[in-house]
Amino acid sequence: MVGGGAAGMMAAIQAAYAGACVTLYERNDRVGKKILSTGNGKCNFSNEVMEAGCYYGGGAACVAEIYERFGVTETKDFFRKLGMRIKNRNGYLYPASEQAATVSDVLRYEMESLGIQLFTQCRVTGVRNVADKEGAVRLMVETDPKTCKEQETDTGQRYDAVILACGGRAAPRTGSDGTGFELAGRHGIVPTVPALTALQCEGSFWKQVAGVRCEARLILYIDGTAVSVVDGELQLTDYGISGIPVFQFSRIAAYALLEKKKVTAAIDFMPDTDAAFWEQRWEQQRKRHMEQFVTGIVNKKTGLLLLKLAGIREAETVCEINVSRRKKLESLFHSFQVTVRETNSFEQAQVCAGGVDFKEITDRLQSVKVPGLFFAGEMLDIDGICGGYNLQWAWSSGAVAGRAAAGAPEFEINTRTDGTVEVRVTELTDHLDRLHTTELGGIRIRKNLALDIEDIAAWCRTKIECGQAVITRQGKNWYVEVDNCVITVNAYSYTIITAHRKVHNPQKPLQER
Ligand SMILES: Cc1cc2nc3c(=O)[nH]c(=O)nc-3n(C[C@H](O)[C@H](O)[C@H](O)COP(=O)(O)OP(=O)(O)OC[C@H]3O[C@@H](n4cnc5c(N)ncnc54)[C@H](O)[C@@H]3O)c2cc1C
Fold first, then answer.
1. Any atom of ligand 1 within 6 Å of the Cβ of 351
2. Which of 13, 29, 38 is the pocket-test mutation for ligand 1 (most atoms within 8 Å of CB)?
């Protein structure tokens, strides 16, 4: 396991539950550093409401499938089992202690009790394919000798499976500085941009309204087309706009800016008022000065700024303002246009959008290029909106990758339509095209079965496809029993290790659905 963040710790624990011997490498001096700063120190670790639109990126399409195996219910059960009470605030889930440290503490304690070997202050610099004596591919983890003391760490250690859970580029002070993408090697990386972050806007007036917080409706425009509408508490800063509604669409703005598109936003400071409000106000306040007129509508600093931008002096009386000037002021209150120059940097962003391309991983989060290499968490090309969605992805992807890497069967999936249990084909039959053998494997099989077959892999594929095969999984291997012989396949590399006549059943292996 590379990376001891939310995804990495969950993956390590689930892999250990499944019987794997797990080692975790973390470059920081402790695990779970980012978790401590989540949810303003309270850690909004999940959300009861999961729907389309909560996630962006290439992984958004497969998130439901991952959550069916390990979703919000499983996450709550998991943390409760670890001793954490949960607080539910309108669907937003927090530890009852309201301390983010509780979440990282219970994970750490569980890792300790499972005997997971932990190397902190140990940066992984490479993950390489190496072949073992049997010809099966294993993965070698290389560590940085400057940060890892060689005698203490298993540098150059070989593993059956490696999970990369190094995070993205957001909040690099917590350890995720993007170097994880280098470990992903030749995997495609969807360009990364800061997400859940503030937007820097044009204009020299921002200092006048810095610090204002107000309920508002924001509409984001890309090249003049409205692409997103969000209501919520807007924060005005000395450089532009911030707050949850801005965070929610910041990743759309970031990608548009990357593509050199024009990004603007319209702010409605009074989404709950209509034309009748203004008619009444102009009438009721007709003897007042304009400073008095704008006082009490919204935050005074905002009112005075809009007055100024409408070209109206504070000392003018309401009667002096003609219809077109009135309309101009009203439209500033309801559709204040700002031009976005850039997003805040990764330093201030909560999440990194983009990452390892989902086209290059299986539904169990294993690389299609490097057998035995898995990915979890924010490293992948998926990012959620605010509200516990990013941590939920870390838990779910970590659990699925952890179990898969340990060679455990799929989490149970029940079909709920007609009450019957869904029968899933095994991962092996799903990926028969990846079946191959080595020279050594070929020699063994020909000898054991007294066969003279040109293409051993094609022969095995046909046997497995015939539908009579009983496929079981034990440790890192698949055992295919068919026509009175047993074919052994490495479950990570899909290498056919050997095949022999069936003399006895391999000691009660786990039955794969
Ligand atoms: C301020 C802030 C507030 C947030 N609040 C929330 C919230 O309330 N709710 C929510 O759902 N999400 C929140 N998020 C987002 C959420 O924290 C992340 O999406 C999530 O923690 C990502 O988990 P991860 O395990 O994928 O990555 P990370 O937590 O980034 O962990 C990656 C780990 O890998 C380590 N690492 C990296 N490279 C190497 C290497 N080469 N060798 C060894 N170790 C390495 C890093 O040191 C790090 O510990 C917040 C984020 C921030 C910054």
1. yes
2. 38
Q: Is 394 in the pocket of ligand 1 (CB under 6 A)?
A: yes
- Provide the token pair at 1: 């396991």
Q: Cβ(184) to ligand 1 under 6 A?
A: no
Mean of the pLDDT values across residues 450-473?
80
Cβ of 187 below 6 Å from ligand 1: no
Domain ranges of the chain: 6-192+350-405, 199-343, 411-501
Q: Is it the case that residue 427 has pLDDT exceeding 80?
A: no
What is the reported pTM? Answer: 0.82
Token reading at 199: 């937007």
Max distance between CA atoms of the chain, in angstroms, equals: 106
Tell me the CA–centroid distance for residue 177 and ligand 1, in Å: 10
List CB contacts of 373: < 8 A, sequence separation 6 or more. Answer: 127, 139, 161, 162, 163, 164, 366, 367
Q: In this structure, what DSSP letter does residue 335 have? A: -
Beta carbons of 382 and 63 less than 8 angstroms apart: yes
**Class at the top of the CATH hierarchy for domain 6-192+350-405:** alpha beta
Protein residue whose Cα sits closest to atom 46 of ligand 1: 175
For residue 391, the CA-to-ligand 1 centroid distance in Å is 8
295 touches 278 (CB < 8 A): no
Q: Which of 46, 75, 166 to mutate for ligand 1's pocket (most ligand atoms within 8 Å of CB)?
A: 166
Q: Which atom of ligand 1 is nearest to the CA of 378?
A: 26
Q: Taking Cα atoms as reference points, which of 149, 141, 129, 131 lies closest to residue 166?
A: 141
User: Tens of pLDDT along 296-354?
Assistant: 999 999 999 999 999 999 999 999 999 999 999 999 999 999 999 999 999 999 999 99
Distance CA 347, CA 37 (A): 13
Would you say the C-alpha torsion 252, 254, 258, 260 has a positive or negative sign? Answer: positive
Residue 387 in this model has a pLDDT that exceeds 60: yes
**Residue 95 tokens, joined:** 């530890």
196: nearest Cα among 390, 341, 463? 390
Query: From ligand 1's centre to the CA of 117, what distance in Å?
Result: 20
* Pick from 232, 168, 243, 260: nearest CA to 199: 243
